[in-house]
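Review box. Two proteins, two foldings.
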Amino acid sequence: MIYSKASLLLSVYCQSYIVSDDVPVSYLKKMEPKLIWLMMFVGVYWAYCIFWGVKGALFSKTSTDYFLAGRSISIWVFVLAATATSFSGWTFIGHPGKIFTTGLPYAFASFYALTIPFTGVLFLRRQWALSKAYHYITPGEMYSDYYGGDAIRLLTVLVAFLFSVPYLGVQLRASGDLFHVLTDGLVGVNFGMFALSAVVVIYVASGGLRSVAYVDCVQCVLLVLGIVILGGIAIHFAGGWSGFVTGIGEMVKTDMSTGEGLTPAGYSSKVAIPGSIQIVSAGSKATGGTWTGMMCMTYMFALMGIQSSPAFSMWAFSNKTSRAFRWQQVAASSVIIGI
C-alpha cells in the first residue's frame, strides 16, 4: 500500500515536472507527428552518445587512452570534432537569431570563422610536437615543465574551469529552452536541460576524449546540414531570394519614414553598421544598435580564445598527425563554415 502510494506520488511529480503547466491534457493524448519525429531523432542521437560512452570506457585502459584517445585521433575525426567544438549551437541557433533581432550589422561578426582558427594556426601544431617529444597528457604538465613550478598548473586548471563551466551552463540552458520551444511546451525547460546534461555526463565521464570525438563528428555533420537546410527553408518562406530582398527593403523604408532605428549617419540599423565606435556609458545607449565596427572586431578577437583554451591543447595532444590542423583551420573553419 505504501509502495503504491509512493509510486503514484512519484508519477504525479514527474508528470508535473516534465510537462509544462500550459499544456492541455488533450494535447498529451494526441501528439503531433512532428513531435513524434522529434522524439525519435533525439532518442537515436542520445543512444548514439551513450553507445560511444560505453565503447570509449572499454577502450580506455590508461590515462593516455582516457584523456587523449591514445594519441590516435585521425585527420577526419579531428577536422569534424574540432569544427563542432569551435562552432556549436551558438553558431547554429544564436548567430541567425541575433541577426534576426538586431539586423545585418551583427552578420559582420561572421568573420569569426577566420579569427577562431587563427590561434590554432599559431599554437596547435607546436603543442602537438611538444606532446610527442615529452609525452604530455595535460596542458598543465606542458606549462609546468616549461615555466617551472606547480603554480602554473593551478592557473591552467582555473582558466579551464572559468572557460568551460559558464560555456556549458549557457549551452545546456539554451538546450532546455530549445526542447521547450520545439515541443510546443510539452517538455519543460528544466527537464530538457537536465536530461541533456545527464546524457553528456554519461558519455563524457565514462568514455573520455574518444567518445567526445566521435560524438562531435556527428554533431559537425548535423551542424553543417542544419545551417544549409534551415537557411534554404528561411529563404523559401521569405518568398525566395527576391522576396527576401524586397522584405529587407520594406523594413529599411519603414525605418527611414519613421525616423526610428537609424544610425548616427542616418541609415537604417537593419542593414548599416552604426559607425566605427561610439563612446557611451552602456551598450543600450548606443545610437542605432551596439554592433559598431569596434564591437564586431573585439567580439571576434574574444572568440580567438576558443582554440587557445586548455581544452584545445588536449585536442592537439590527441592527434596522430599534425596534418589534421591545416585541414580543420583552413578548409573546415574558414571555407566551409565561413561560406
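Next protein.
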Amino acid sequence: MLLRSFILAMLLGLICACSTLSSIASYTVTEHDIEQGLLEHLDQLSQKTSVAGIPVMLSVSSLEVIVGQDNRSVVALRADAIASVSVFGLRYPAKVKLGLEGEPYYNQQEKALYVRSLTLTRSEIDAAGFKGNLTPLADRYMGLFNSYLATHPVYQIDTTKGGLAWLGNVPLKMEIVPGKITFLPQFNQATK
C-alpha cells in the first residue's frame, strides 16, 4: 500500500514536471503583441508619393492584426488609412480601407518575426462621394507596407527577459494557429 502511494505520488510529480517543462519550452506571440509593436511605429507608415502626377500623402491611422486567419499560416493586416490629395493648394482627404496578408518569417539571428510576401486582399476608397477601388492608390499602399515590413520586424523577442535566453541558443520552429504564433525548439531539422 505504501509502495503504491509512493509510485502514484512519483507519477503525479512526473506529470506536473512534464507539463511545466513544456510550457517553459515554448514562447507565444499573440495578435495583440504584434499589433502593439506595429502601433508603436505607426507614424513611420506614411509616405509622400504621387498618383497620376498628383501629390498624395499616404498615412495609416489604425491597424488590426489577425494571426492564422481561416486556419492558414498567414498574418493578416487590416488598415484604415488616409490618402490626402493636394491640388491647387487644397487638401482632399480620402479614407482607405486595406486588407493585406503575408507569410510570417522568423529570423533566428535577429530573434525577430517579420511578415513578408504581402498580398492585397481588400481595397476600399471613400473620397467625396466616390466609393470603390482605386488600384493605383492601393498599389502605393502595398509598396509602403512592403518596404516597411521588409526592414522592420513586427515583433522582436527580448532574450534578456525572464528566462528567455534559451530562445537564442536553439533552432526554433513556428506553429501558427488562430490568434497566436508559438515558437518551439526544433531539433534535427532546418529552421523555418
